[in-house]
Amino acid sequence: MTDTVAQARERGYVETITGRRRYLPDLRSANATVRAAAERNAINMPIQGSSADLIKIAMVQIARVARDENWCTKLLLQVHDELVFDLYLPEKERVLEVVQDRMKNALPDLPVPSKSRPASARTGSKRIEKLETKSVERRKVLTSKF
């Protein structure tokens, strides 16, 4: 951690594993409180930022496959390292296969393997069923945990 802060002080920025930078001019602040906050950011940003980069890359790759294959399944939202889908059940196997693969392999050259695990929960919303043109059961699928 001290190496990260020292390197950030020298360069003026920190980077994620994808090379995205955050500049931290406050590392040279005369105000100790401001400087300490910048030091915490220097330690935190490479980790949190790299996690954000991973999920964003996976989301883009999943969206491309969904568009190319014309999925009825929709990505509803992303929360930290989780993706929440409204899953069209006939597509379940393919969606799980693609989502897990893209999340595991978003950055294939990582020195540590990433993992992904699916979870599901039934939706009880009759409104969603009425809005859909297909009369099939739908589920939300949470795929998470790099």
Compute the number of strand runs.
6
Shape: elongated
Mean pLDDT: 82
Main β sheet profile: 4 strands, antiparallel
CATH fold-level label of the largest domain:
Alpha-Beta Plaits
Number of domains: 2
Oligomeric state of this protein: single chain
Structural class: alpha+beta
Strand order across the largest sheet: 3-4-6-5
Going by CATH, the architecture of the largest domain would be 2-Layer Sandwich
Radius of gyration: 20 Å
Please provide a written account of the structure:
- It is a single chain.
- This protein is an alpha+beta fold.
- The protein has helices at 2-11, 32-68, 92-104, 126-131; strands spanning 13-15, 21-23, 74-79, 82-88, 117-122, 138-144.
- It folds into two domains: 2-50, DNA polymerase, domain 1 (Orthogonal Bundle), CATH 1.10.150; 53-144, Alpha-Beta Plaits (2-Layer Sandwich), CATH 3.30.70.370.
- The chain has a four-stranded antiparallel β-sheet with strand order 3-4-6-5, covered by helices on one side. A two-stranded antiparallel sheet has the order 1-2.
- β3 and β4 form a beta hairpin.
- α2 (32-68) runs antiparallel to α3.
Topology:
Elements lengths: L1 H10 L1 E3 L5 E3 L8 H37 L5 E6 L2 E7 L3 H13 L12 E6 L3 H6 L6 E7 L2
Antiparallel strand pairs: 1-2, 3-4, 4-6, 5-6
Write a compact overview of the structure shown.
This protein is an alpha+beta fold and 146 residues long. It is 45% helix and 22% strand.
What are the key terms here?
146 residues, alpha+beta, DNA polymerase, domain 1, Alpha-Beta Plaits, 4-stranded antiparallel sheet, 4 helices, 6 strands
